[in-house]
Amino acid sequence: MTETAAGVVQSVDWLAIAPPTIAALVALVVLVADLFTDDSRKAVLGWISVTGLALAALSLLPLLDGHRSTFCRTGRSSVCSYTADHFALVIQFLVLGGALLAALLSVSMLRDARSGGARRARGGGRGDAGTDGARPAQGAGPDGVRNAAVGSLGGARNTAGGPAVPDGEFWFLLLSSAAGAALLPAARDLATLVVALEVASLPAFALVGLKRGDRRSAEAALKFFLSSVTATAVTLLGASFVYAATGSLYLTEIAGRLPHVDGQLHTLARAGVILTLVGFAFKTAAVPFHFWVPDTYVGAPLPVAAYLSVVGKAVGFSGLILVTVIAFPSYAHVWGPALAVLAALTMTAGNAAALRQQPTRAYSAVRLLAWSSVGQAGYLLVPIAAAGSADDPEHAVGSTVAYALMYAVVNLGAFAVAALVARSSPLNRIDDYRGLYARRPLTALLLAFFLLCLAGLPPGVIGLFAKVTVFSSAVGAGLGWLAVLMAVNVVIALYYYLHWTALLFRAPRTDARPRSDGPAPAVPGPAAPGTTAPAVPVPLTAALVLTAVLALALSGAPQLVLRFSTAGLF
Amino acid sequence: MIDISPSVMQALLALIVAGPLLGAATALLPPPPGLKGASPEQAVLRHGVTVTGAVLVAAVVLALGFDHDHPSTMQATTDVNWIPALDVRIHLGIDGISLPLLVLTALLTFLCALHSYAKPPQGPSAPPPRAFVALLLLLEGGTLASFAVLDLLLFFLAFETVLIPMYFLIARWGGEGRRAAAWRFILYTLLGSVVMLLGLLLVGLRAHTFDMVALATDNGRGLSTSVQVIAVLAIGLGLAVKSPMWPLHSWLPDAHTAAPTVGSVLLAGVLLKMGTYGFVRIVLPIAPDGLHTFAPYLAALAVAGIIYGSLACLALALPSAGRRPSSGRFAPRPPTGARGDLKRLIAYSSVGHMGFVLLGIATMTPTGVNGALFANVAHGLITGLLFFLVGAVKDRTGSTDLDTLAQDAGAALYGRAPRLGGLLAFGAVASLGLPGLAGFWGEMLAMFGAFRPADGLSRPAYLTYLALAGLGTLLTAAYLLIVVRRVCMGPGRLEGTGAGAAGGGPAPVLAELPDVRAHEFAAWTPLVALTVLAGLWPAALLGLTNPAVQQLLAGGPK
After folding, report:
1. Which whole-number Å values give the CA distances from A452 to A353, A561, B83, in the listed order?
2. pLDDT cut 70: percent of chain A above it
């Protein structure tokens, strides 16, 4: 009896699953604690969440040897559902770190929203200020700068009599999504993968639509939700095809059985392989699954957009890597070219669209970051595509991991600066960054550095070398055409990144009309015109400093991330 | 010449590469107490002079300590592992090929810093000089690094480092049309250099090393001919854009015309050399078979560049046909694209001169490559001087347009500013290759190499190129002499020369111009002296390059 029980009831390696578990537990803690905190002390929730994410990231430390796995099949310890190998650890670190930085940005956003909401409640805001985001700021009046990524949060629904973004729910959703995203890279069977994908995505829809009463936010959430659900459904279909063809859900078993699939099931298996990729390609925002990106980023609160651009992408490409390299290596001739074409389309479409952004349009900064993140997704896909024809696919995908780490740091840094600028210029146009150097020299230099890292030009050394590894994976796999196309794309991308960078150092506009950061509804405390920029809240500063230090350290010692491009991760 | 221990040499080279970068970073910080100077602007410009001066001193000491008996060996080498994942090593070293370029870069940048100190950079919307100095130093660091590194990926990094500073130098301190010119410069060169990266990666991945010395020693034996052909095509494209080779030169005239004086000097004097240096250092020894395939085409394009450059210059130098004599003393500059712009003319002449360099490389003979390297340095000295001079003319007259300057009869610089006019004439005749000055030897040797190209290259084709290049020298002489006649000569007030601004004579035809000032004199004298020295004593330079070139062609440095 006990023997049977021991055979059925598995022993769980709690240490191995600590990272996603801690995140999930803290999510519940926050949800419960929300009930017992009064409105004036909601900030505590934010700090609990930040601490929780930091703890989850720290819990990776004991796992560093990378040999733990749990939830294995009885009797066969090599077939497991959860494996904390080096790949899983790196991606978990990336996900939790990214969520931590996004949480830091959120802390100050929520605080601004609260104070803004309080002010508005006193002043009696205008509830009907419309959704015309392109309207110049000065027409909107002191209280009416609406729909801004940050500024509108407070006053969107004064009738509700409180902050428009509910703190407890916000933190719960963010942590749940992070837990799902941390689970995904360690998942080693298709069911767990899909579940993790959903756990990471479902809270994200709610996060995007969390700005109560904001029509743009709701629309973005709906768009995001519908297209994501479709993609996940297709993935499920694909997974079921694969299951039907191979009779297993475990990735390693699928890999072993796919080459020996019955002749008549070949078409089924092939269709299953392709369809499975769809859901992950969607999360990566690969063309043609990218349409949700710009509207979602603009509609979502800025920290959520930052979160999606880094953690959402990490979910997508780590899932792609797992299914392609671990589960379907025998179908490399199918997914390799498919992903290569996908990468080519994605980078070209993203960069071309980013090129067309009007700097004077409302939210153009976020829009540009959104489209550029689509372009960057294309670069991320290149090594995975190269893995299809490389001798050693597990090494090739290391370039994606290295690139993603670089991208996460500098992109979150750029978003942090955007969040900072959004505090004074809620419309967040690229034009609002003109002359930033004169107002905040250090911030401007940092943004310039982040943008040049994204562009891959010195002094953004880490960006350059990350691109070099991606190029080198493509050249090594003989994908010359893709490498040349990527080269052209790098040049296109430089145009808009450098354009933005150059704008930072221009002389500020000298015309008489008040700049949109004059009235500054969301800025706590008096922002006297003519004096230096208002003080930056501590969490935002922390996020900026963290990303800046990381990016600079990586530029000095690129080996820190680039070593993943050669080390075997699995 | 003097004995310096290897570790000191090592430290010197490391200082030369890292110093400007550190200087660029510190330029952004507020000046330390005690070094504040008269104003922050003055302090930061002085900082630029100090750093570039220190680098120049280090470079000169390095050149003195260089073992001139063994110029083909890599000296002052450092080899540190930096990014093992990509096999990138911080491998520095100099030999007879890179040493002259290193010293030239340090010298020109120092002179530019000196020039800016005396005459702070200005522009329509110019930001404070702090940014200028930081960018100048970053640019210097990038160029010096690209001549000192011996690792393909590090070379690429250095190659890319110069783009951003040069972009901002043109876009923020430039003249008319600066923004478009800056964009064209950076997009063009970036496209070229990214394609070059693909070629470098192909070489490195196939040969399993990115080390230039190892690859050069291997001399292409580890690479199949088809790989070499693709690699040369890709790498050559990037280098050819930078060099620039006709027909990929079209970014150059605009960039030069729009750039501030300092930017033009560095662009012509230093940046273009990175392209030709890459050909000699990377393409020639690492993929000889591939270059062998492309050499005739390279030579043909080089000669086309020579002819095209000189014809373009001739068209610019001649008075424009539809020009009516204007009554005003200095007619306002035509709104768009002044036809006879002097800076533009020198830019096109650079296309021609770099054509000689490329022709020399394309012969794949020691003579030709030596000529190419000599012409490289000579062009840096002479064109740097010419851009300084044209900048001075612009400061004085407010224009660089030949038609505006010369009016109908000539600008008469000899009469109005005799020293300036004399120097301009000196620069022009040095540029056209007068024997006894630096411009002569390089072009002569390059053409000499074309007379007997390497085995396997079609001799009749090269003889044709030789003839055409010879025609090019004639055309060059023609347009430069026209420029001298139109700018330096003319109905000036000859009796008022020498003594200068006595100002009491008969009504002058053209206003007196201030002659060469002290700081200008200081900036130009070294260039003039070196031009004469290199012309009279070419062995000093050839003695350095020749053994190294022989080694490269035969199988790399040891």
Report:
1. 19, 18, 20
2. 85
- Whether residues A507 and B195 touch (CB distance < 8 A) is answered with no
Q: What is the pLDDT of residues B461-513, one digit of tens each?
A: 999 999 999 999 999 999 999 888 888 887 755 444 444 444 444 444 566 77
Asked if the model's pLDDT at residue A317 lies above 80, the reply is yes
On whether residue B511 sits in a domain, the answer given is no
Interchain CB contact of A464 with B (< 8 Å) = yes
* Burial label, B336 (beta-carbon count in 10 A; 0-12, 13-18, 19+): exposed
SS3 category, A84: strand
Q: Which domain holds residue B385?
A: 6-320+340-499+529-554
Instruction: Look up the ipTM and state it.
Output: 0.88
Q: CB-CB: which of B85, B142, B194 is closest to A565?
A: B85
Q: Which residues of chain B does A567 touch, with a Cβ-Cβ cutoff of 8 Å? A: 85
The alpha carbon of residue B122 is apart from the nearest alpha carbon of chain A, in Å, by 14
Asked if A568 reaches chain B (Cβ–Cβ under 8 Å), the answer is no
In a domain, B516, yes or no: no
Q: Please give the radius of gyration of chain A, using alpha carbons only, rounded to the nearest integer.
A: 23
- CB contact set of A150 (below 8 Å; sequence gap of 6+): A109, A112, A113, A301, A302, A419, A422, A423, A426, A522
Burial environment of residue A76 by CB neighbours within 10 A (0 to 12, 13 to 18, 19 or more) = exposed
Is B377 within 8 Å of B353 (Cβ atoms)?
no
- Mean pLDDT computed over B426-448: 89
CA terminus-to-terminus distance, chain A: 37
Q: Facing residues of B151 across strands? A: B211
Please write the tens of the pLDDT for every residue from A387-429.
988 777 777 888 999 999 999 999 999 999 999 998 888 888 8
Nearest residue to A63 via CA among A98, A15, A23, A20: A15
A117 contacts: CB under 8 Å, gap ≥ 6: A153, A154, A155, A158, A162, A163, A164
How many domains are contained in chain B? 1
The verdict on A563 touching B (C-beta cutoff 8 Å) is yes
The token pair at A95 is 């996900």
Q: Is the Cβ of A462 closer than 8 Å to some Cβ of chain B?
A: no
Domains in chain A: boundaries: 2-508+534-565
